[in-house]
Amino acid sequence: MGLTANAIVFDRLTKYYGKRRGLNELTLAIPEGSITAILGPNGAGKSTMMRIIAGMTVPDQGTVNVFGRQPGWERNHLIAYLPDRARWYGGHTVADALEWGERLLPGFNRDRAHQLVSDFKLDVELEVEGMSRGQEARLMLVLCLARDVPLLVLDEPFSGIDMISREQIVLSLIDAFSERKQTVLISTHEIGETESLFDYAVFIQDGRAVLCGEVEELRAQRGSIRDIYRQLFGD
Ligand SMILES: Nc1ncnc2c1ncn2[C@@H]1O[C@H](COP(=O)(O)OP(=O)(O)OP(=O)(O)O)[C@@H](O)[C@H]1O
Question: Which keywords accompany this UniProt record (predicted)?
Fold first, then answer.
């Protein structure tokens, strides 16, 4: 695959929540241009790591570099971040959300957003507050994927989406990512249906990276990503 430069570098990054450590000297590099899976059990530190990249949480110790600089609001025009929980405006429809995106999100491509809405079978008239979890997940994906930014950080983007739709969405993502030069980080618990998306994988446990590498190499050495997950985290 020929991955060279790193888009993101963590060096002994630690984040405390009270006495508990959300991240524990996390040391890790994410290759530029990769589609990277962030994998690990509940509470491993995946969301904390992503929030730090998006500049929404500040670490307590260690360093993090995103394209060579510290994260923060002034870097956010480079990043499309899909949080694990969203808040919407009351009374807004999918169409309103797209308009909001066009006005406020740097690099937002309106035509692509509308294409994605149609690909993901969303109704533009749908009110966002009344959406099912799967519909909401699709809308959040649209708002991120429509953006021409160098880094996408997607925290559990498939959660709540049914299996068949998930498979279709993964196929359209493979298509979309092959056309564009973006670094993409995706945390997910749905490893089976999403494995084909990834060319790099990071396994996290207790706030540390326990294994990372190019998916092709990991597969050749240790089996499928699902098998590796079981080897690392199974009882
Ligand atoms: N706001 C917070 N206040 C207190 N503790 C927190 C907070 N956010 C995260 N933590 C703790 O930090 C650790 C890492 O949490 P994080 O949400 O990053 O894990 P995760 O890997 O994303 O988990 P999941 O797969 O369940 O979404 C957990 O022990 C969690 O309880």
Answer: ATP-binding, Nucleotide-binding
